[in-house]
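Quick question: what would this complex look like in 3D?
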Amino acid sequence: MPDTLVTRVAAATPAPLAARVRGLSDRTIKWLFIGPTMLLLLAINIFPLVWTIRLSFTNFRANRPNATVLGVGIDNYISVLTDPDVWQAMQATAHFLFWTISLQTLIGFGLAYLIDRKFRGHGFWTTLILIPMMLSPAVVGNFWAFLYQPQIGLFNYAVSFFTGIPASSFEMIGSVKLAPWSIIIVDTWMWTPYVMLICLAGLRSIPDYIYEAAEVDRASKWRQFWSITLPMVLPFIMLAVLFRGIENFKMFDMVNLLTSGGPGSTTELASITLKREAFEKWRTGYSSAFAIILFVAVFGLANIYVKALNAVKNR
Amino acid sequence: MRSMSQHLAAGFAATLLALGGQSAHAQGKTITLCWAAWDPANALVELSKDFTTKTGTKMKFEFVPWPNFADRMLNELNSKGKLCDLIIGDSQWIGGSAESGHYVKLNDFFAKEGIKMSDFMPATVLGYSEWPKGTPNYWALPAMGDALGWTYRKDWFAKPELQSEFKTKYQRDLAPPKTWDEFKQVAEFFQNRKIDGKTVYGAYLFTERGSEGITMGVSNVLYPFGFKYQDPKKPYNMEGFVNSPDAVKGLEFYKSLYKCCTPPGLTNSYMQEGLDAFKSGQVAMQMNWFAFFPGLYKDPNVGGDKIGFFLNPTEKTKGVQLGGQGISVVAYSPNQAEALAYIKWFATPEVQKKWWALGGYSCHKAVLQDPGFTKSAPFAKEFLESMDSVVDFWAEPSYAQLLLAEQKRVHDFVVADKGTAKQALDGLIADWTKAFKEDGKLK
């Protein structure tokens, strides 16, 4: 028998223990390996979910530990679904989702397409473009609040420089019309590089011989783009859209720091409303119901989307 | 017999050792005081050194910046945490903290130690100590008196060319305003004016959306206009009080001030941004808490002779938003005896005098009714007068829900231009009624 680490460990294992291990079936050994992970997952994922579902049917408030907890049936769900503030937050979230995903996909793919052409210094430009996504959302929220400041903010000055509109004549985060766009701009600035990276991976995965074959068939660049590049990158783009969609559905930190949901409730996304209900108003039962509704919505939409993604991939 | 005496001696020695040990243990104890991170907290650190010298109990401090203070501390209390032995909690927390058992009731302790609530200003006892309000049930000792006041640029007001221009326009001297009409005139006068080559603005108001900012600012105008939280004869009946014609007028006035006379970009700003705006010479008048005034007076650029202070203007009546806090013993603290000893020490008139001298705002009559008090600081007179007309927000256990409802309704109207003042206040009554129903206070 060769002298390896395994044989040395086997030799060092006491005989009674070795006999017991030998007596274990493959199935038992598998469970021994995955058991701790399963237990951990149950403790940190499944248990809180089940507990939240339970709380969503009660009037429990975490700040009133001594109060009697009563079952309220589906009242919390009815309250959430009939609350105009919740629908306003859902509308704001939908607006934010639609525009951030659209812009990030378009710009991200465009940048990836440009970076994919190997030009002088493309490594440097790739690194530069990636910097925003490496920053903390809290930092981004805070410094964009300064950039948007109408008197000293660089953003207003830049707009003023290019358009001639006076810098202090408009307020990005103070105006009802502009505030939703202010958060879209920041999120797009921050996360377009992420979409670009995924698209770049897709572009680089297309074998060169396909393009060579297309060249032989005298296909134009335009035709190559529509018939080869786009269909082959599409699953990657869809994956990026899925990731960004899920992330932005639960967007909280950056928007909270930038606008606090204001002016008024113009940029109050669903997650900000949820946080206010759960940890500021302490309506734990109500917010649990709200969280479950959001979870079901995201889970359901993501599932439908993944099915579509698989269909595109298998084409 | 000999054995018996040996036992007795041994027992006596053991008792002495145990007592000695216990005393040594108390000497080495450390208690933690939790508060917000701001100027008065630094003064309290300085003051508390005397407590350590006197008792041997060491002090540790947990100061949290204001924007996170309520979240952090209420989470700590709700989770029955043992981080804080003493807490200087916001006045609005008193109802919830008393009813949830977070604070130790202090009545017996006060009676035993001879601490009389009549030694403190009545408004501070009502605001910081009592729950239910107006009953002799005490959960805190008034620790830090505070209210919303105003600072102004005395040096700008004194400029002869501005004085004469103002007099020509309004037929009166350019002086700190006493009424809201005067206030608006002064604010309009300064708005977009060039002073020392720099564009300046009329006034700084609170507009913060996330925590309590805009509610505090708006309330400071609503109270003098005649806003009332409820029918004094029928508690929790808000119709005709919260949305009275006076209240509607007050809210419209706040919006008009916000529109006419504030710096651009003032859409989500609270106390710190106000200090920044004033210190950078951006505004002629600034709304802020008295707690910051000692620091502003010492500021090398805008303090000293350049700064003046004035009372919240009046309209139909007087009214000022109460700030400030009481000091409470946390019910989950393992060091309650030491924490109570701190309160006993803090309540003495000598300590209260030193507290004021260091920059804290004492609520003790021995300090405030001292003949020399009004001249002891340039803002002392205004502070004393403000404390006579303070009004506080709801201190109900559901205060956070009530506060966030007002934040939303008022910000929607003032900053986001949604609906009318009447609609905002009607909506507020609907939100508050819902909260009180959930709380069982209304049927």
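Answer marked as accepted. Chain B touches chain A through 32 residues (CB under 8 Å).
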